[in-house]
Amino acid sequence: MGEEISRLMDGELDDEHVEIVCGQLKHPEGMSAWMCYHVIGDTLRGTDRCTPGFSRRFSARLAAEPTVLAPRTRQGRTASFAWAAAATVAAVAVVGWVAVGTLDVQPTVMAKAREAGSVRSALVGPQAVPADYLIAHQEYSPTAQIQGVGPYLRAAAAQGPDGRP
Amino acid sequence: MTAARSLHSPIAEILLALTLLSAAPLVRADEGTEWLDRAALAARKLNYTGTIVYQHGGRVETSRLVHMNDMGVETEKLVNLDGPAREVIRSHGEVRCFYPDARVVRIEPRTFRNAFPSLSPLQLKSLTEFYEFQKAETGRVAGMETQAYVFEPKDGLRYAHKFWAEIGTGLLLKARIINEKNEVVEQFTFTDVVLGARVDRDMVKPSWPPSPPDWTVVDTGPRDVDLTDTGWTVDKLPPGFVKSVEGFRALRGKRARVAHLVFSDGLAAVSVFVEPVGATARATGMLQQAGMNVYVRQFDDQIVTVLGEVPAATVRQIAYSVARR
């Protein structure tokens, strides 16, 4: 089950499997695997964290919002941004929906959803490269070897408190 | 000079002068690699403890380092002193990173030092061909006497590297990477250091059990780094860069493996990662991260990520030269 959930997060599942795995997320084991993978991902990327209770407050506010069935028609060039934003809201909404009914969802789940949103609305600019890419690089950097001060300094720096380099 | 004088020929004098000039950098480059070898050896062999300040892009991070070599077995503990706690323990062919706030331990295989005890002959050749070695000033760093030396690049495809070595042992107490505008790209400095310190096992022990019971353990495992032909190549490699490693590895907790190629000129390294485009879309373009330039681009159905402690132009050139073999 863990592998399927991981693939869902990476968007590697076809529609049929998405249905099945979303079903699994309604069970506590599925939900805990989902949260666990997001915590790992967030930690590795150093994504900034939400305050506790964010998901509950968000779910409440989302429930109070009127349902938008279709994005409003926009003109010309802004269309792609509008669609990107719609996709973002959808992603957040799905997570919000999944979160309802679990007692206390890890705030990081929402952080992840927000991050997924920022990636999807794309085009804005490159995001930080995950820390494990830097660790992998550092292993083979001659400078790191010569310095001997721990090749992991750079990688550790890549995941600062604010999550941004 | 007696030979030149006896010839009484200005041409012979010029020839001799040219010979001397061209011979001089070679001699100095050898001295440079000797310094580097000495530094690398000292970093492994000595026991030392110290505080390291790492500066890059206007940010400052401070860490505490303890290094122990017990009968040839190295153990190292690195703890950051600002922000959320991070602890890195290197020992027994692996690296454990503890993230107490997230209750995660990440275990990475440590292939590097076994694979590369020192610079390869090709890397040494690049070092002498593409950098000019200069002995610089002597002075104090972390209260100890040091000799500074500089590797100046001979082209715009790499940065200058300046090192401050403790005179007695050769251990680097300070290292700086400088760009073409003479700005510091990144810098490591010991602010205090004890060389030949008494270090016992307790000082390099992790603050937690190796795998705390209620933590998540992410183990990439040695089998996940597979040194093999990836089917990828860089066809217009900048001069002086030589491939030092090629293989597949698991990254971002993914099962799908990422091709990883590393190219080095003896001082700087550039990593090339190639992976299929996933739904976790990565924006493309240039960015700077932790003293490195990073270029991300899409190539057919693949995402190419190139990063290294080299100028942006070098990273971009490599990113656009990635091709299927």
Mind explaining what this structure looks like?
The complex is a heterodimer of chains A (165) and B (325). Chain A has 165 residues and is mainly α. In chain A, 62% of the residues lie in helices and 0% in strands. Chain A has two domains: 2-120, no CATH class; 128-165, no CATH class. Chain B is α+β, with helices and mostly antiparallel strands. In chain B, the strands form three sheets. Chain B has a twelve-stranded mixed sheet. Chain B has a seven-stranded antiparallel sheet with strand order 13-15-16-17-20-19-18. Chain B has a two-stranded antiparallel ribbon with strand order 14-21. The longest helix of chain B is centred in the N-terminal third of the chain and has 36 residues, at 10-45. The termini of chain B are far apart. Chains A and B meet through helix 1, helix 3, helix 6, helix 7 and helix 8 of A and helix 2, strand 1, strand 2, strand 3 and strand 5 of B.
Topology:
The complex is a heterodimer of chains A (165) and B (325).
Chain A: H1 2-9, H2 15-24, H3 28-45, H4 54-64, H5 79-99, H6 107-120, H7 131-138, H8 142-147, H9 152-158
Chain B: H1 2-7, H2 10-45, E1 48-56, E2 59-70, E3 73-80, E4 87-91, E5 94-99, E6 104-109, H3 112-115, H4 121-130, E7 131-141, E8 144-153, E9 160-166, E10 172-178, E11 184-195, E12 216-219, E13 225-226, E14 232-234, E15 242-249, E16 258-264, E17 269-276, E18 285-289, E19 292-299, E20 302-308, H5 312-319, E21 322-324
Parallel strand pairs in B: 6-12
Antiparallel strand pairs in B: 1-2, 1-11, 2-3, 3-4, 4-5, 5-6, 7-8, 8-9, 9-10, 10-11, 13-15, 14-21, 15-16, 16-17, 17-20, 18-19, 19-20
